[in-house]
Amino acid sequence: MSEPNGNRREFLRNTTAAAASLPIIATANDGEQPTADDAQHPLFQPQEFWQDRIQPPDDGQRLGWFVDTRRCFGCHGCEVSCKSENDVPLGNYIRQTIYKDTGEHPQVARLFLPMSCQHCEDAPCIKACPCGALHKEAGGTVAIDYNTCCGHGTCVEVCPYGAIYLDPVAKQAVKCHNCYHRTEQGMEPACVPTCPSQALYFGDLNNPESSVSKAIADAEQTDDGVTQLRSEKGTKPRMWFTGQAAVEVEERVPRENESYSPEAYDIYNWGDKQDR
């Protein structure tokens, strides 16, 4: 996949240039949380404004993720590689490993849940974007056009997984884009080969021989099975999980109008008695 829609690194290098003024379609915010099947939600734009952008290219691919939380031991290597690959500033995250302590002494455990954008098929961020920057790229990857993004932030308000943040310098929305600058060269997203426990899988879900398809199929045959987070939102996420962490840690995953935060690593979260 080429990168005709603006490169975030280039934008940050030239951030002293003023962003072009863009017309913003008016939105309302009454505090309600949207669902993907509610096209009339006050934070969503008219359907004719986003219906073309929410359709992926007809390339035969269906890119998605599988996370084996049974293998993750919380090294945060995926976060570090992601930050390095995408110039993510301190205090912000495109992906984050969220943890929770469970059990009672002496039978205790720490569970880890690697999280990032779910690249939803019915992505609410695309429907809510007032400047038309969010769109589908090859394989259904949800990406941002940095020549168009105006930093309105409505996408942050509607993301059910807290996977988008506003860059403090560029004043634009930032999220996982499946490292499409790597995948177009035949490589995996930076986090995948970095993971020492092989807990992350990425690839074409339409190909039964892909590593991600095989991993999901294998997990479906185990007692743990596979699950998705907040599927009741109706966004049709393209990330599947297996293991106890997906259920136990879900309550600590950011929600609408939130983003990944350094507070997730606060010492006061070490005890299971503390709230998120």
Q: Which helices and strands occur, and which strands form pairs?
A:
Blueprint: H1 8-13, H2 47-50, E1 63-68, H3 77-86, E2 96-104, E3 107-115, H4 124-128, E4 134-136, E5 142-144, H5 154-158, E6 165-166, E7 173-174, H6 180-183, H7 191-194, E8 200-204, H8 211-220, E9 239-242, H9 245-248
Parallel strand pairs: 1-9
Antiparallel strand pairs: 1-8, 2-3, 4-5, 6-7
Q: Your description of this structure?
A:
This protein is α+β, with helices and mostly antiparallel strands and 276 residues long. It has one domain: Alpha-Beta Plaits. Helices cover 19% and strands 16% of the residues. It contains 9 helices and 9 strands. The protein has helices spanning 8-13, 47-50, 77-86, 124-128, 154-158, 180-183, 191-194, 211-220, 245-248, and strands spanning 63-68, 96-104, 107-115, 134-136, 142-144, 165-166, 173-174, 200-204, 239-242. The strands form 4 sheets. A 3-stranded mixed beta sheet has the order 8-1-9.
Structural class: alpha+beta
Could you tell me how far the N terminus lies from the C terminus, measured between alpha carbons in angstroms?
A: 39 Å
**CA-atom Rg in angstroms:** 18 Å
Q: Strand arrangement, largest sheet?
A: 8-1-9
Give the amount of beta strand, in percent.
15-25%
Q: CATH top level? A: Alpha Beta
Tell me which CATH architecture applies here. Answer: 2-Layer Sandwich
Q: Count of helices?
A: 9
Q: Residue ranges: pLDDT <50 for 5 or more in a row? A: 1-5, 11-39
